[in-house]
Amino acid sequence: xxxxxxxxxxxxxxxxxxxxxxxxxxxxxxxxxxxxxxxxxxxxxxxxxxxxxxxxxxxxxxxxxxxxxxxxxxxxxxxxxxxxxxxxxxxxxxxxxxxxxxxxxxxxxxxxxxxxxx
Length: 118
Description:
By secondary structure, this protein is α+β, with helices and mostly antiparallel strands. The protein has helices spanning 67-81, 102-108; strands spanning 42-48, 57-61, 85-88, 91-95, 113-117. It has a domain at 42-117: 2-Layer Sandwich (Translation Initiation Factor Eif1), CATH 3.30.780.10. The model has no long low-confidence stretch (mean pLDDT 87).
């Protein structure tokens, strides 16, 4: 109740410093360029029937990608091929026989060597 308040506007003390401020805002530092990971060097595409109740599954192996990246590739592959699929360990398992269509898609994604095994 008996607090001492400074008389007037407290910002008036800062008013003389306004003349020392630059006219234009300082330039922002440029953002660092995004880190672009190189695509996998190779991939092995093979068909598997054993242990799947006679159903065919196409496996994409040897991509040497981290688990998070494999999930992204699996999602993109499922959308592009119009099929179901899952990441199983270090391989992507897609439903159906896609050995003819996969090499072209992998080449577009930057995989240098695609081996199709029977």
